[in-house]
From TrEMBL:
Keywords: Isomerase. Residues 1-11 have a biased composition (Polar residues). InterPro entries: ADC_synthase, Chorismate_C, IsoChor_synthase. Residues 16-30 have a biased composition (Low complexity). Residues 195-454 form the Chorismate-utilising enzyme C-terminal domain. It comes from the Bacteria. It comes from Arthrobacter sulfonylureivorans. One of its GO terms (molecular function) is isochorismate synthase activity. This is isochorismate synthase. It catalyses: chorismate = isochorismate.
Length: 466
């Protein structure tokens, strides 16, 4: 569905010679030859005003940004791709092998320092899409008042110091990508799933639910943006990050977006997740007299049996999958209303102390595999819903609704769900995805309208009109 992206352009092309690819369990060790060397140093030069947004200047940037903090990566020293049911295990094994002989001087320490791999994984094990890990050559990190710079290389003769790391970063950001202006010739057209086909799929899903085959199903569809001039990916990322500060803005190899949902975050042996289920379009409010928007959202979402039922299914799905890896778990007794520029969501935060099996807690990548897919993006029971999605949607979701994020060398990491996003398929074609949870009583027309609300962040960031 998508092709590999060239780090020199951020758009589909050939992989560079340095990239390493493995596509099957029996493939030889795909690590580049030589020893991975690197250095992580404190980096006081991060701008005070916009933080990491100042580094979203190239269309090929790798990023994970929230509230001006996070990670931004440039270049590429190694890459791994895989597909099929073992894609997570293959990626984890490759990542462990890459680090086993690495020589890294980490002067900072903490999550996100040292070698980091950005990744995105296909939603389905049946997908033809290649899941991937990409290790950047240069990484800028910002977490509150703590900022750092990492430089990695396979050059055995390279001198590793703060000065060489700074020079490597400067070389990458010296050439910034051009911006673009909206053009009347830009268009938004139906994708693989038409509006009518989507509503038919929702209606069919409701019938299966009423027949007792499952309790929830998530049905998705796509639309395609055809642009008159090449997409300005960095510009889109800055727009998303500035507008959706409570979301996690991501860019991995042409998969871009700003997700409100944290699948799993691991930091110092504690796992956290943010679960969303239940959506209300902010452009279609019908307030009672004297009722504030906040009170309206609370009444319609938290006061809705359908919305709370859908939300509880998502919470139960996550906690059930996470429980075997934990010693204690906590979550909100009542969901809260998350306010975003385009929609309101019912949300709950979950945290858990990780069990240490043999002294080593599970990594963020291992947990991402364990909890994916949640009911929030698939349905319940998961296996029944997954099979029905393949039957009714009639499209390959690719990386949409799959895990996207990063992992470091000691297992810390953040993996969101690739929502409110798009895949850059060519310089002038971008495919957007959106889906909705279907339960007993769901109305196809209402679910269709909800998909348009969820498309809105990307449509606006691309400068399009519906």
């Amino acid at each position: 569905m998508t092709s590999a992206l060239s780090p020199s352009s951020g758009l589909p092309g050939t992989r560079p010679a340095a990239a390493a690819v493995g596509t099957a369990p029996e493939a030889a060790d795909p690590s580049p030859s030589g020893t991975l060397r690197g250095i992580t140093v404190e980096w006081p030069a991060v701008p005070d005003t916009q933080g990491l947004l100042e580094y979203l200047v190239r269309d090929d940037v790798l990023c994970w940004v929230r509230r001006e903090g996070g990670l931004a990566g440039f270049g590429e020293v190694a890459r791994f791709t895989a597909s099929g049911p073992d894609r997570f295990q293959q990626a984890a094994a490759w990542w462990r092998g890459l680090q086993s002989g690495a020589d890294i001087e980490n002067q900072v320490g903490g999550p996100g320092t040292g070698p980091v791999a950005f990744g995105s994984f296909a939603f389905s094990y049946t997908s033809a899409h290649q899941s991937r890990l990409v290790v950047p050559e240069v990484l800028v990190g910002l977490d509150g008042d703590r900022a750092w710079l990492t430089y990695l290389t396979y050059d055995g003769d390279a001198h590793l110091s703060a000065a060489t790391a700074e020079a490597a970063l400067a070389a990458w950001v010296e050439e910034i990508s051009v911006e673009r202006s909206p053009d009347p010739a830009d268009s938004l057209v139906p994708g693989q799933v038409s509006e009518q086909a989507y509503m038919d799929a929702v209606a069919a899903g409701v019938e299966r639910i009423q027949a007792g085959h499952l309790s929830k199903l998530v049905v998705a569809r796509d639309v395609v943006a055809n642009l008159s001039t090449p997409i300005a990916t960095a510009q889109v990322l800055r727009e998303l990050a500035a507008r959706y500060t409570d979301c996690w803005t991501y860019s991995v190899d042409g998969l871009i977006g700003s997700t409100p949902e944290m699948l799993i975050k691991v930091e110092n042996n504690v796992a956290r997740a943010r679960v969303l289920a239940g959506t209300l379009d902010r452009s279609r409010t019908q307030n009672h007299a004297g009722e504030s928007d906040t009170d309206y959202a609370q009444r319609v979402l938290a006061g809705s049996e359908k919305q709370r039922h859908e939300h509880q299914i998502a919470i139960d799905s996550l906690t059930r999958k996470l429980e075997p890896f934990t010693t204690a778990m906590t979550s909100h007794s009542e969901p809260f209303v998350l306010e975003l520029p385009n929609v309101w969501h019912l949300a709950s935060d979950v945290s858990a102390e990780l069990a240490q099996d043999g002294g080593q807690p599970p990594s963020s990548l291992e947990l991402a595999e364990a909890v994916h897919p949640t009911a929030a993006v698939c349905g319940t029971p998961t296996e029944v819903a997954g099979a029905l999605i393949r039957e009714l949607e009639q499209m390959d979701r690719g990386p949409y609704a799959g895990p996207v994020g990063w992992t470091d060398s000691v297992g810390n990491g953040e993996w969101g769900i690739a929502l409110r996003g798009a895949v850059v398929e060519s310089p002038q074609q971008v495919r957007l995805y959106a889906g909705c949870g279907v339960v007993d009583g769901s109305d196809p027309q209402a679910e269709l309208a909800e998909t348009w609300a969820k498309f809105r962040p990307m449509i606006e960031a691309l400068g399009l009109r519906r």
